[in-house]
Amino acid sequence: MLLITNQYNVKDEAKIIQQIASFDSCIIHVRKPHYSLSRMKKWLDQFSIKTTQKMMLHQHHQLHADFPIRGIHLKESHKNSDISLPKEPKITLSAAYHNAVEAQRQSCYDYSVLSPVFDSISKANVKGKKFNVQNSKKPIIALGGVDAENMKIARNLGFQGVAVLGSIWHNENPIDAFRTIEKTYQNVYG
Predict the structure, then answer these.
(1) pLDDT at 124 over 90
(2) Vertex 158, ends 152 and 162: CA angle to 5°?
């Protein structure tokens, strides 16, 4: 299960992420599009090695040389650019998709994240498409409006996992919200 960070600062964010990272099934996707390279480096410095090893960077990919991160995530605009990707086999590569056919056909990345699957919690007026991805070559993770109530639907649509954002960060207690969703995740995907 993926947790995507809030793009903005959140009160006690580092503490929340440290606790959520303690769940074995969790990978942290670090999405901070407004952060400079130095700010991102300072942000990453807050975390233990064990936590950074669970992180996928959406920006400032070159920081993989300074931190023991899990991997690099490419957004739509990065996939066709000349980003220099690490050759190390230990780095996981993932990419964002908004088209189910492209996500199912891709073979370059370890997994893809497809959105929006359900109506977005964090972005007003973004309607879910309930993509069916039964025939994918590589794992596809559902993003967009995922919560404990619709996780089984995502599984039935062929998704090999889920990514959460709004259902965690728009909750008064993100840790409790994650705990509830993670319990459902274990029942559905475990």
Answers:
(1) no
(2) 60
